Amino acid sequence: MDVQHLSHIFRLNRKVEVHAVDDVSFQIKKGEIYGLVGESGSGKSTVARCVMNIYKPSAGEIYYKGIPVCKNREFKKNRKMLQMTRQMIFQDSASSLNPGMKVRDIVAEPLRIQSRKIRTNKKEIEKQLEMVGLDGSYLEKYPYELSGGQRQRVAIARALLAKPDLIVADEPIASLDVSIQAQMVNLFRKLQKEQGFSFLFIAHDLSMVRYISDTIGVLHLGHLLETGTTEEIFEHPIHP
Question: Of 34, 99, 106, 158, which is the most exposed, with the fewest CB atoms less than 10 Å away?
Fold first, then answer.
């Protein structure tokens, strides 16, 4: 993925506008974990939502496998591929899971939406849950019966079922207890090594980003201050 000069402005009314992201550029290579770090309000979630076509950027281009995804014609032409090979894990697992659906239906939902003719039977969904550390007893449960960490594992299982090439995780550990955060980060590393997907990991916790990332970008007030390998950023930071 190649993000070039991305900017996004939220217009609150005719006179007031918020420059959430301003001229941000970075690249994510195949199989790389790119950590985007910054304090609250720095524009991290806006970048994630622009990358996933939830927001349309005010300026700039985003290329995925060479396809300019911000152009409506190109997006429509490649819609199914873009929707299946890119998946997102949201910060708030409680609001990103349908409260009226059982876990087995939540995990299988992306394939049903795409009308994929595959058998999403109980054994396949159970295997998907086991991959993220949950057993078959969770299949018939609803999101309100799960803890925050368990809900996030369900969200990860749902994202991985489509076997994506890129996963965007928008502060996926921010709402979890510290002990659960470590478990989730270790799970992300394990799954990424096993499946080889590219990973945009967004957080405000420097230690977690340092632990998981190959490359890091530092975002502050909508500007990308510096980007480089994990060693470069932590051993020789440019910005205080």
Answer: 99
Among residues 51, 12, 80, 43, the alpha carbon closest in space to that of 225 is found at 43
pTM of the entire predicted model: 0.89
What are the pLDDT digits (tens) for 90-143? 888 888 899 999 998 898 888 777 665 555 567 778 888 888 888 889 989 999
Q: Do residues 173 and 185 touch, judged by C-beta distance below 8 A? A: yes
